[in-house]
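Repro:
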Amino acid sequence: MQKQIAMVTGAAGGIGRGIALELAKAGYDLMLHSARDFNAAKILCDEIKDRYGSAAFAVQADLQDPEAPDHIFSEFDKRFGRLDLYVNNAGVTEGAPFLKMTRETFDRVYEINLRGAYFCVQNAAKRMVEIGVKGNIIIITSNQQHYIMPRMSVYGPVKSALMRFAAHASMELAEYGIRVNSIAPGYVDSSPRMAPSREKSMEHIPLRRWATVEEVGQAVLYLASPSAAFITGTCLVMDGGASNQNRSMGMFNQDL
């Protein structure tokens, strides 16, 4: 059986690292993208090779650069001849009060989270179509696509746009047998720097805990698996029921 090939953006740490490890454990060969911590991405590649025997390569690019998607995929083409799964995880979480939002922050959130995602997905889809791979594309969004939250007047709408984009792409790519879905995590235990938010967040999460990066990786595996062969254009919300509570997230401290 031919090994499956996956690319994960934003894979040096956090959710992206968790997804990459779950894919490697399942037997995927991998191309891992990082913007800021390329050394961590290369160390992860070595870990994947040692632990799971999968091929793993790293590529560095800042998705705020309009040329970055083409660069990422040209590097991919040097290593692999097919793409079965593309996971768009790269993104930045930045915000400010609406009246103090700067053009620089607006551009950075939009250009990395939406424009970069759009053209990376386009590159992935083109490669699948060119060689007839009935592949999978999964976009990591956020449950903030459902919330009106202080300081997030750019980030929240951009994540909503990503969810809509996944649905649009799924319609156009269905004729090629390519499925496109999104996953919207809430709080994920992905970085020690998030620890101060944990206690205050619990009253708003019915399951009273955060997701693990492994659980997000397992959700990616499910959506890419034959068990999900009839699922496309949908968004899987992973937030412990938080977005089902009919209340505004504005009750959160604005510093979270």
